Amino acid sequence: MSFLELRQVSKTYGTGANEVHALREVNLAVDAGALVAVMGPSGSGKSTLLTIAGSLEDPTDGQVHIGGIDLSGMSRDDKARLRRRSVGYVFQDFNLLPGLTAVENVSLPLELDGLAARKAKAAGLAALEELGLADRADHYPDQLSGGERQRVAIARAVVGDRRLLMADEPSGALDSENGEAVMRLVLAACRRGVAAVVVTHDAQLASWADRVVFIRDGRIVDQTTAAVGPDALLARSPNQ
Amino acid sequence: MSVRHALLALLSEGPKYGLQLRHEFEERTGDVWPLNVGQVYTTLQRLERDGLVESDDTEEAGPQKGFRITAPGEWELDQWLRTPPDLSSPPRDELVIKVLVALRLPGLDVREVIQVHRRYVVEVMQQWTRMKEDEAHFDLNFALVVDAELFRLDAVVRWLDTVEGRIKRASVEPLTSVPNGLPLPRRVGARR
């Protein structure tokens, strides 16, 4: 069953001559445990799709369902609670709070959701440990490398019982090895049952996904089909 | 790819039998380029004829015949490693030709044609990336071959993205419109 579902979602900014159609009748379903990449050029609507799918913004038309719940019927407070509990976000520029340590950044969403500080910190440490960052827990963001900062951001996005991970160009300015490490972490979260959407213009990042969706001018125009296994690549060499 | 020099490289580690060379070649290239045994022995015979390897005294080529590299063979290997492959002229790339042809056909949705190719390339990239997922079975040689393939395919996707961007801009700026005014290159694909 799909954990995230967008039904006929459209988003329009401005009115009259200034009207911009950022999304047009988008349908997208992401199952629990699936990693879906959304590929498109700048201005294609992929970031808008992510913010609407993550309930950071409301669609002009259509519905968004998270965990089977239609967001259009929810109050702002309920949506905020849903975001804190179920949705994790990873952005290109990490968005870590500079005055908090790595573990404080990771445990903050849990504390905001009412979890006792000690329990939140323990969960934060566990998330950091899982990403190989236990020894960086007490470092501040400016004491971490770019790759480490992004891993902290991913730890923050998956801490607790998050079921949906939304990532916008998560490898940002990282080099290809760190970009790959980021995608391995996202994929590992999916293998634990998290549903993830990654928007990117980078085909190497997108190729980690179970399915790649192509967006142009606010419309989903195409998607990859279930690919045959990797063995097919090795079986077709002429000398075999 | 030079099987000849790959065999010289393997023999530079010490004497080896033909079957062993085949096995090690495939192992070092991550099993991406399988080699038939006839190709191994034909190449070894040529290397021996050219004085780049020596064999045991055994008359017949076979599994028990050992080979070792000679001093000229080591020199040849060293020279080959330091000689850049010829990248100076564009290969006759079928995809480039298809896109150039598509641009000249009236009434054809070039963006749709581009998307067909983009989706295919991304699907192949997904298959390669799946192989990276299982790190336990991902040795260095295989990793390097897979990375090379992913970077090559990534460049194809970027090129397709750039083509689409240029076509879009050209349609907005008719004075510099590309499609009908685009001259086909006079010389595409000097090699391959």
Report the order of strands and helices of chain A: EEEHEEHEHHHEHEHEEH
CATH architecture of the domain at 31-55 and 75-211 in chain A: 3-Layer(aba) Sandwich
Shape, principal axes of CA atoms of chain B: elongated
Side by side, the strands of the main sheet of chain A go 6-7-8-3-9-10
* Total DSSP E strands of chain A: 10
Write a brief structural summary.
The complex is a heterodimer of chains A (240) and B (192). In chain A, 34% of the residues lie in helices and 26% in strands.
What structural keywords apply?
heterodimer; A: 240 residues; alpha/beta; Rossmann fold; six-stranded mixed β-sheet; four-stranded antiparallel β-sheet; 10 strands; B: 192 residues; Arc Repressor Mutant, subunit A; three-stranded antiparallel β-sheet; 7 helices; disordered C terminus
Verbal overview:
The complex is a heterodimer of chains A (240) and B (192). With 240 residues, chain A is of the alpha/beta class. Chain A has a domain at 31-55 and 75-211: 3-Layer(aba) Sandwich (Rossmann fold), CATH 3.40.50. Chain A contains eight helices and ten strands. In chain A, the strands form two sheets. Chain A has a six-stranded mixed beta sheet, with helices on both faces. In chain A, strands 2-1-4-5 form a four-stranded antiparallel beta sheet, with helices on one face. In chain A, helix 6 links the parallel strand 7 (164-168) and strand 8. In chain A, helix 3 packs across helix 4 (117-130). Residues 236-240 of chain A have low confidence and may be disordered. Chain B is mainly alpha-helical and 192 residues long. Chain B folds into two domains: 3-82, Arc Repressor Mutant, subunit A, CATH 1.10.10; 94-181. Chain B contains seven helices and three strands, in the order H-E-H-H-E-E-H-H-H-H. Chain B has helices spanning 3-11, 18-28, 37-49, 71-82, 94-104, 110-133, 140-172; strands at 16-17, 53-55, 66-69. Residues 175-179 and 183-192 of chain B have low confidence and may be disordered.
